[in-house]
Amino acid sequence: MAIGIIIIGDEILSGRRTDKHLPKMIELLQARGLQLAWAEYLGDQPDRIVATLARTARSEDIVFSTGGIGATPDDHTRQCAAKAWDAPLQLHPQAQAAIRERTADMARAAGVALDPDSEDYRRRLKMGIFPRNADIIPNSYNKIPGFSIPNLSGSGAHYFVPGFPVMAWPMFEWVLDGTYAHLFHKDVQVEKAALVYEMAESVLTPLMETLEADYPGIRVFSLPHIGEPGVRRHIDLGVKGNAEQVDAAFAALLRGLDALHAEYLCQ
Question: What is the spatial order of strands in the sheet that 263-266 belongs to?
Answer without folding.
Answer: 218-225, 234-242, 189-197, 263-266
